[in-house]
Amino acid sequence: MSGWRYGGSKAKEEAMLQRLDALAKQWAERHDRMQERVEQLEQTVEDRNKHIALLTDQVEELSFRLKVVESQQAPLQSTPSSTATLLGTSGASLPPLTAGPTPSAPESRRGSRRQLRRRHTAAGTLERRGSFCSTDAHESALSRRSSTRSVSHDESLVRPLDQNSITGQPVFTISAYGVDSAIVGPANYQHNEDDLRMPTEKVELERVYGYQGRRCRNNLHYIQGGDNASSSTLHLTYNVASLGVVLDAATGKQRYYIGHNQEIRCLTVHPQEDVVATGQKSGLTRASAAHIRLWSGSSLETVRVLGGDNQLGDAVTCLAFSSFEPDVLASVHESDGGMQHLIIWNWRSGTPLAEAKAIHPEPIFTLAFNPRMPTLVTAGKNALTFWNIATAQATTTTAPTTTTPGAPPPPSSSSLLLSSSTSSTQQDSPPSPGIARVTLTKRPALYQPHPRPKAVLAVMFAPSGRTITGDSNGSILVWKRPVPTYNVERRIEDAHVGGVYCLQATEFGFISGGKDNLVKLWTWDFEMFPIDAGEVNTIDVGACVRCIACVPTVDGPSLSQFVVGTTANFVVFVDAGAGSVGQLVPGHADDVTCVRAHPRKANTMLTVSADGSVRAWDTATHTELWRRHSFVVEDEEEDEVPVSGDFHPITDDVAVGSSTGTLYILDAAGAVSHTLSQAKSAVTCASYSPSGAFLACGTKHGFLHIYTTADYQLLFAAQAERDDQVTAIDWLLDESYLQVACLSNTFYVSMGEQRVVNATETAITCDWYTRTCPLSWEAQGTRQSLTKGATAVSHCSRSSNKALIVAGDNQGRLTVYKYPCYSTKAAGLTRYLHSSAIGGVAFESSSRCILSGGTGDACMMQWKVVPAPERPTSTAASTRSNSVSTTASFVDSSSSSPKTAQPSTATATTTATATATTTTTHQPAEARNTTTAKLSPAVTASTASIAAMSLSAPALSAGGRSCVPPLYDTYLEWKSRAAAALIGDGSGDDSVSSDAAGGGDGGANIDRRHLGDAENEDRDRGQGDNGRDKSTTPTASRRAFGRRITRIE
After folding, report:
1. Domain spanning 193-197+588-770, CATH architecture
2. At the N or C end, where does the chain have fewer CB atoms within 10 A?
3. What is the pLDDT of residues 199-230, one digit of tens each?
């Protein structure tokens, strides 16, 4: 009877499951139909809104033209003021113009702004409130240093100001930095509906230069598998800006995890599984709150999201997995005022197990689990704390969770979890369903009789389980086990000068790195490692050591081969057996302040950084061509660093402007051929004319200087009112005019008459050699976010084929528009991966790619410009492909075309390791004459691919797949899956390259709704995740979608 009852119950259960499955499929089909209808309605609304915006612009323009006509019929009220004042040799300004009545007393600031917004004279020109004038300080600003040759001034260079004006020209205003900027346009221009459309080209992330070594520690690790979890190839993973980078050192291929929407502050790798954990700082919105993301290093799919909703304060600063208990992750986050807090997580279920609040008021630098015992160590400024943790089995089951395909399996009911115990030092966390309660017991560290350091900077564990620390005194301390406290057992004094920043343990010894740029090898007897002929145990890596990752071998981590991350934001590979050091990841050590393209050499870019270097890069091979520090000197009063630069269009000379107002001209050999000093403020902009006959430079205090390059004599100079910083200079192709942009205004210079003039029809409509002025008529639409006062466009650049213009703002956003961009309502492709203001952006001379440089993150990102894939003929399919707006994805920089269903395994045709020895290998025609390098004969075949780095690989195309993290809300999860299931033509599939980092049909809508909206200025890309089916047919996708709903229920 009992058996019969059991069988009946099982039959009923199966019938119930079948019924639920049928209901789920019906619901999925209904949801598909509703979703398609909603998307069609949304597209209709969007089209009508664009039409309304166009009509509104036309009405405003007609109204404005009517006012212009009325003002032309009125009597002459005043004479238009000029936009700048020329300065003579003595520095005195020209006398004011006498034409017109004397200006009346100024009104209030607010009232004058309102009335001068669109004030016109009878001639129809704008009377500019932000006019330019001379200053008494010009003479001192033009003072010469005794060490540089003098530049003569001639009274004949001074020309009277142009008083002519153009009638009937429309003038528009854009609010920038609290000032209404005037932009004069052509008289006969009318808006075109095409001006508002999205560019047809797509932008894909192709390469990232740099490594975050300034604000992060222990963020460089080896992982196994790369883009194939079953592969034995080893890859490096590290973070830069808001990206998690996975680098194949053998081929130079980079892949990116872009699930974060703020700067990543810490990174760690699970010791046993394919899981990487990264923590970010907090932004200004709820969606950009500090949180932790766990993702697969092979598939780059999100496994779990921890925190959010301000649970983790201002930033997650430290992360560590436990080897003793593989389900446990520890994190340290910082709250307001710098207070540090510790949380123990069950990362599989996403629940916090214990929390120790306010553990220290000063920064915690490192966090580590002892692999031999349940002990956790936190170390930082004036802090070293040992935490004891107990373990036991959980008595209840965990809540059901949904994992992304390819993620590690959830824990079984027999998994060991942390159990509760009593402690008088920390308060227990409330129990979670199915999770045991945890208590942390704090144990102090006693230094007596040794001196207590100001900071403990590094922690590691010997194979025996002993704790070893490195501190700011340059000492290495070995700690005894607690009886009942931790005491110092042994001390190695002066191991490094300035502090021990990193410690890495191996089976045969350990490695230390310090502030003195040295890496040292030690035995477990705490003596320097003995070496044979040709070997070294002390290596200079060229910068302060931040992190060390040893090459994994069959016998464990290697003591002789390892990679080193530095505070100068570059990574090197070290072979101690051969005594060689080679660069794997190049990068600037400080803010990138200028990016320029060589006008006649394809794939050649120039970057200027506050680290004191000017560098040229090959964007095809992703290598550094040359680096020059020769012009940088250390002044007695302040350090002099380069700020701006430009390539000479004919020769190989480079003009570099410094922070002290000095302009250096470097020849091809890197020697300084000319030194010019016309101002005491920083030279913020430099630009050669198209023929190279003239050089114009602008300064922070608003000076403009124009030189002849034959002898670098000063032609003339002018200065802006209010010390308005010069940000960009553009030349006409025939060199008859140049436009100078300041922070809040712009003016024109006539080179034929050598005078500053008002905007003319010729100057506006002629062909410009470059377009880098955001306040120009053709680029005014790039400053659309300024109308809402949210961000400021700091740099822009036009492609050489005049099809696109790119703008970078002070929030790290990069947006590509169609050129010309007249309207502030124009749609653009937005990429939001820089974690701080963009310091420079430029199109490569062939318009193949864009290079952007960040200030706070000090990294450079190379973006490939590719045509958009052909859209499907079906209207419904086209609508579906543009509907997804909640994905977080990655870009694979190695594929030559967008991926569809399976990732390609394209490899680079050339490889290089990191030494100066170069050879030429036989390669295909398109990859010949590529430089390669070898480490040394000592590198074995098994580790050569690990040690190698493609410093000179051919250009790698960008493709990719998307990782779709699970959302917190089930309905949003189902909705996103439904959107993914609708995409059956591959144009918006997960396997297509990242929509957030570039690529994939439908990226335009994703960018506008998710990354580029001015309403969401703090880049809310969403921090939730949703699973997505990889099927390529709509039917298969819907079936898989139905099965997922059944499984969730």
Report:
1. 7 Propeller (2.130)
2. N
3. 999 999 999 999 999 999 999 999 976 565 55
Those residues whose C-beta lies under 8 Å from the C-beta of residue 329, and which sit 6 or more positions away, are 277, 292, 294, 306, 319, 320, 321, 322, 344, 345, 346, 347
Domain ranges of the chain: 193-197+588-770, 237-361+390-439, 875-920+944-1048
- Going by their DSSP bridges, the two strands 486-492 and 445-446 should be labelled as parallel
What are the C-alpha distances in Å from 678 to residues 199, 653, 682, 713, 995?
Answer: 42, 20, 10, 11, 47
Q: What is the pLDDT of residue 394?
A: 52
Per-residue b/e over 723-737, b at no fewer than 16 CB within 10 Å?
bbbbbbbbbbeeeeb
Please give the Cα distance from 112 to 115 (Å, whole number). Answer: 5
Pick the CATH number of 237-361+390-439 from 1.10.10.10, 3.40.50.300, 2.130.10.10, 3.40.50.2000: 2.130.10.10
Backbone angles phi, psi at 195, to 5 degrees: -65, -20
Phi, psi angles (nearest 5°) of residue 42: -60, -40
Ordered strands of the 654-658 beta sheet: 642-647, 654-658, 662-666, 672-677
Could you read off the pLDDT of 566-589 as tens digits, one per residue?
A: 999 999 999 998 889 999 999 999
| Nearest CA-CA partner of 1010 in 261, 289, 292 | 261
Output the pLDDT for position 944. Answer: 41
Q: pTM above the 0.90 mark?
A: no
φ, ψ of residue 663 to 5 degrees: the values are -110, 120
**H/E element holding 222?**
strand 220-224
Query: Which burial class, exposed, middle or buried, applies to 592 when counting CB atoms under 10 A from its CB (0-12, 13-18, 19+)?
Result: buried
Q: How far apart are CA 191 and CA 248, in angstroms?
A: 49
Q: How many CA atoms lie within 13 A of 347 on its CB side?
A: 30
β-partners of residue 456 are 471
Decide: 29 and 35 in contact? Cβ < 8 Å: no
Confidence band of 88 (pLDDT split at 50, 70, 90): very low
User: If 0-12 CB within 10 Å is exposed, 13-18 middle and 19+ buried, where does residue 191 land?
Assistant: middle
Locate 483 and state its tokens: 């009886």
